[in-house]
Amino acid sequence: MMLTGAVNQLTKNLALEWAKDNIRVNSVAPGNVQTKLLNDILENIGEGEKIASAMTSQTPLQRMGEPKEISSLVVFLCLSAASFITGQTINADGGFTI
């Protein structure tokens, strides 16, 4: 959580500083995402399924995220539809942080 706090504060500070130049600053804080790297790590450790189950059991949506769910959020933030959003850290974590 300490790193998330640092990223959140950096996002806010840069957004405040760069707003005058019409530059928006936002960050995305993904939770557990089902990637090839994560799958490889879980396969290589003895209790990978147990760890994956523990990770999802603490997430209100009871699953890991998909890479496309994170990339879609990033794409949205780049669109003009998000032109009034700045200084935000968006947690895409299935509700884990709530």
TrEMBL record:
Pfam families in the record: adh_short_C2
GO biological process: siderophore biosynthetic process
Keyword NADP found: yes
GO function terms (MF aspect): 2,3-dihydro-2,3-dihydroxybenzoate dehydrogenase activity
Keywords, sorted A to Z: NADP, Oxidoreductase
Family assignment from sequence similarity: Belongs to the short-chain dehydrogenases/reductases (SDR) family. SDR65C subfamily.
PANTHER family: ENOYL-(ACYL CARRIER) REDUCTASE (PTHR42898:SF101), TROPINONE REDUCTASE (PTHR42898)
Protein name according to UniProt: Tropinone reductase
Organism: Arachis hypogaea
